[in-house]
């Protein structure tokens, strides 16, 4: 089974933001990246997505993604950015169709997967923040890529829609390499298979959600939380 190998560093001008980040991700395991604000999580996803050009290597299935042209890379990697207000008044269907540019993917299936098929004719600018987040995910799904990167995919969603997105990722994880930046530690600890903790642009901890201790959170976020575990369910109380 092909793996994604990441071994990179990145600087904005002279400011080192990612320093020797090295990890692997594979299908079947939902990988969550957590860490405090400014630790480099979004920058890491942007490097893998090809928006930023890091030093080092990003290899998937023997192919070095850093040196691929954008259209070739888009066949392999899709990226769901942090949600912002849509810039153009496309219909939902047209917006999701943008994802098919590189690979000619399935718009209808993508809309169905996120529950937006009924809204296909509506303008994207009329969606709620949560629905727009789902449209961003549908656009990435329509790309049909093997690797999917998501930057805080549940941040604008109510508990019901957040659960829908998590369920979708759990359904997709056997067919795609999925890497999600998550601020919601409860989602990360309860649904991810592996966790990477970033701090000051370095991986300071990695392991399974069951191994995340109060000390790990304290050392990364400088806050002393309580982690409660009941019948396999974990809750992080700040
Ligand atoms: N375009 C940019 N130019 C210069 N510095 C930047 C730029 N974008 C981000 N940074 C800096 O890089 C560092 C990492 O930012 P990044 O957005 O990757 O962190 P993050 O962990 O995703 O943060 P958050 O959790 O707040 O979204 C921060 O110090 C940030 O100020």
Automatic annotation (TrEMBL):
CDD domains: ABC_Iron-Siderophores_B12_Hemin. PROSITE patterns: ABC_TRANSPORTER_2. The keyword Translocase applies. InterPro entries: AAA+_ATPase (IPR003593), ABC_transporter-like_ATP-bd (IPR003439), P-loop_NTPase (IPR027417). It comes from the Archaea. Keywords: ATP-binding, Nucleotide-binding, Translocase, Transport. SUPFAM superfamilies: P-loop containing nucleoside triphosphate hydrolases (SSF52540). Residues 3-225 form the ABC transporter domain. GO terms for molecular function: ATP binding. Pfam families: ABC_tran. PANTHER family: HEMIN IMPORT ATP-BINDING PROTEIN HMUV (PTHR42794:SF1). This is ABC transporter ATP-binding protein. It comes from Pyrococcus kukulkanii. The lineage of its organism: Archaea, Methanobacteriati, Methanobacteriota, Thermococci, Thermococcales.
């Amino acid at each position: 089974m092909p793996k994604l190998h990441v071994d990179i560093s990145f600087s904005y001008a002279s400011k080192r933001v990612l320093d020797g980040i090295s990890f692997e991700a594979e299908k079947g395991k939902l990988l969550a990246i957590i860490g405090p604000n400014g630790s480099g999580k979004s920058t890491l996803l942007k490097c893998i997505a090809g928006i930023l050009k890091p030093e080092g290597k990003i290899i998937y299935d023997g192919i070095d993604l850093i040196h691929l042209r954008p259209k070739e890379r888009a066949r392999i990697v899709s990226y769901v950015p942090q949600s912002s207000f849509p810039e153009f008044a496309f219909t939902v269907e047209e917006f999701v169709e943008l994802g098919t540019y590189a690979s000619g993917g399935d718009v209808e299936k993508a809309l169905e997967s996120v529950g937006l098929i009924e809204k296909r004719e509506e303008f994207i600018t009329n969606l709620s923040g949560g629905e727009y987040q789902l449209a961003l995910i549908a656009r990435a799904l329509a790309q049909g890529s093997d690797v999917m990167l998501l930057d805080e995919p549940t941040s604008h969603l109510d508990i019901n829609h957040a659960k829908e997105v998590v369920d979708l990722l759990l359904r997709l994880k056997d067919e795609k390499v999925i890497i999600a930046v998550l601020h919601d530690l409860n989602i990360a600890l309860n649904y991810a298979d592996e966790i990477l903790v970033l701090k000051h642009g370095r991986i300071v901890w990695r392991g399974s959600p069951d191994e995340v201790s109060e000390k790990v959170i304290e050392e990364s976020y400088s806050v002393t939380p309580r982690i409660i575990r009941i019948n396999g369910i974990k809750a992080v109380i700040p």
